[in-house]
Design a protein that fits this description.
Largest sheet: 4 strands, antiparallel
Shape: globular
Radius of gyration: 20 Å
Strand order of the largest sheet: 1-6-7-5
Order of helices and strands: HEHEEEEEEEEHHEHHEE
Number of helices: 6
Bound molecules: zinc ion
């Protein structure tokens, strides 16, 4: 499931390729992908002839600013891919939306499980009002993070994954961040010492930065690809996630997996407290 590092990798490549380009053709064949619009034709009318003026991101949402002041919002869901291809490229299974940027460049939104979506809205997108601060761009100090944590009595991991608290972190990066911070998933958020908050703050920014630097994580069972169709490289750097039974890189005790709320959590039972 794509999280902030994967979405940011895509954002940077789309920013490079698309800003200044005009959407000259648009086809929406997957009604479910454009479900916020009454009809697919409404989506097509809203993008056709507009140019891309900026490529932004908030949490796991990509935000393509258009020249008429609207924003094309794109969410990858469980299995969505955004691929840049030449317009004559062969058909790709599960393609739901195609945008053409002239004779040399096309974008395809591919999504086998169709939990992802694309829609056009006015700026700022009120549809994203439920999102908390962005985990990469808007958490700027340990003091800020500490104040956020003190206002919540819930457990640390579900709070980090709560998109209304901080946007962009999912199951995988929550485990990696908590491992780096040496904190257990089930610590009460308001129980952290100042030193623990600083560790969590540093772990958040360093893990997200490193994962972006390695172009995200592609797991055996997921669909993440970058805009060129290539896999990410950060999965080889995971310290805890998916490492059940392997020695902890810090203390050599075995990494364990616990099931909480239908999801797996990976942690070192000795050095995360
Ligand atoms: Zn350990």
């Amino acid at each position: 499931v794509p999280e902030l590092p994967e979405v940011e990798t895509i954002r940077r490549d789309l920013d490079h390729a698309l800003v200044g380009r005009e959407i000259r053709s648009a086809v929406a064949t997957g009604q479910r992908s454009v479900r916020r619009h009454g009809e697919a034709a409404e989506f097509v009318t809203a993008v056709l002839g507009r140019s891309v003026t900026a490529m932004g991101r908030r949490g796991k949402y990509l935000l393509m600013s258009l020249s008429d002041g609207a924003v094309l919002v794109l969410h990858l869901g469980m299995s969505g891919q955004v691929l840049l291809v030449e317009p004559g490229h062969a058909a790709i299974a599960h393609t739901h939306v195609m945008l053409g940027f002239g004779p040399d460049l096309g974008l395809r939104f591919v999504d086998p499980r169709t939990f992802g979506e694309i829609f056009v809205t006015r700026a700022p997108p009120v549809e994203l009002a439920h999102l908390g601060v962005d985990a990469l761009d808007d958490v700027r100090s340990a003091a800020q993070l500490g104040a956020m944590l003190r206002s919540r009595g819930t457990k640390l991991k579900p709070l980090l994954m709560d998109q209304g608290f901080v946007a962009g972190i999912g199951n995988l990066y929550a485990d990696e961040i908590l491992f780096a911070a040496r904190l257990r998933y089930d610590r009460a958020a308001d129980s952290l010492s100042a030193a623990e908050v600083r560790r969590l703050y540093r772990a958040m920014s360093s893990i997200l930065d490193a994962a972006i630097g390695h172009r995200g994580s592609s797991l055996a069972d997921d669909q993440y690809r970058d805009v060129f169709g290539a896999v990410g490289d950060y999965q080889s750097r995971h310290q805890a996630y998916g490492r059940e039974g392997e020695p902890c890189p810090r203390c050599r005790k075995s990494i364990v997996r616990v099931k909480t709320g239908g999801r797996s959590t990976f942690l070192c039972p000795r050095c995360q407290a």
